[in-house]
Amino acid sequence: MPAESQAPAATALSTVAPEPGAAKPDPILVADGVTRSFGGLHAVAVDHLELQRGAITALIGPNGAGKTTLFNLLTGFDRAGSGTWTFDGAKVSQLPAYRLARRGMVRTFQLTKALARLTVLENLQLGATEQRGERMYAALMRPLWRGQEADNRVRAEELLERFKLDHLRDAHAGTLSGGQRKLLELARALMVRPSMLMLDEPMAGVNPALAQSLLEHIVELRDEGMTVCFVEHDMDMVMGTSDWVVCLAEGQVIAEGTPRAISTNSQVVDAYLGKQHGTPPAEESS
Ligand SMILES: Nc1ncnc2c1ncn2[C@@H]1O[C@H](COP(=O)(O)OP(=O)(O)OP(=O)(O)O)[C@@H](O)[C@H]1O
């Protein structure tokens, strides 16, 4: 049975009815009528969804449930067919990712081949400019305003230390282990001091030792006041870390609740948990 979190967000959520579309005491994100179709396939059709400020919310569901599609819509990486959503009280539907980042919502990015050739420190410095929507070429070629560059350097050093990547600051990102890459992806997103962090499968390809450290970092960020939302198949992480769980199936929210309520929800068990046969094996060795 999952342990219930004692964080303030968990306490606030303990009075919320465990039902799809439930209103939250202090929602940071509110979505209404969000749809996305591919041809005749309704990948996402979410009537109403609220995410509680300062809480860790997990999006779960079977393969093809629409989790990644919804995540991409909310983070400005795809365009919804219809629907509106607000972030921190302001309408942000269809805003591109860099404009969302300016408002405080950022998502992690997988390291591309180009980024793998840069050092860890360069990745962090570039993370700050990317999230603001500056072009990579311009960011590298044009001398940045000195004050801003110095701020970015200070922030980067803070994050290197926090994530214990300082000894790797001059290593090429491509040489990092799977878990270290995930830490770097998280650190890159934090360069712009967001209020909400969106994570797509943070545990994928991470070995158990680093998974634990990654998990602790995420809980620590929540304890500092950050709102976190992640898509994840690893049910240990979902049950052990999240304050609230939203289960999607066939594009719709079929259940919401605390990890404890969700683990015994018959619809979730039928659609997802009953079909889970453990989590995929870790892919890295360090
Ligand atoms: N670009 C696309 N073109 C066509 N169909 C798509 C596209 N992206 C997603 N889909 C379809 O939309 C549905 C939802 O996919 P999505 O990737 O959002 O599910 P998911 O819940 O994230 O699944 P998984 O857990 O396997 O990652 C699936 O049927 C998928 O095949």
From TrEMBL:
A Pfam entry, by short name: BCA_ABC_TP_C
Alphabetical list of SMART domains matching this protein: AAA
InterPro entries in the cross-refs: AAA+_ATPase, ABC_AA/LPS_Transport, ABC_transporter-like_ATP-bd, ABC_transporter-like_CS, BCA_ABC_TP_C, P-loop_NTPase
MF terms (GO), sorted A to Z: ATP binding; ATP hydrolysis activity
Residue ranges constituting the ABC transporter domain according to the UniProt record: 29-275
The keyword Ribosomal protein is assigned to this record: no
Keyword annotations of the record: ATP-binding, Nucleotide-binding, Transport
GO cellular component: plasma membrane
SUPFAM superfamilies: P-loop containing nucleoside triphosphate hydrolases (SSF52540)
Domain of life: Bacteria
Keyword Plastid assigned: no
Protein name according to UniProt: Amino acid/amide ABC transporter ATP-binding protein 1, HAAT family
Organism: Amycolatopsis marina
Lineage of source species: Bacteria, Bacillati, Actinomycetota, Actinomycetes, Pseudonocardiales
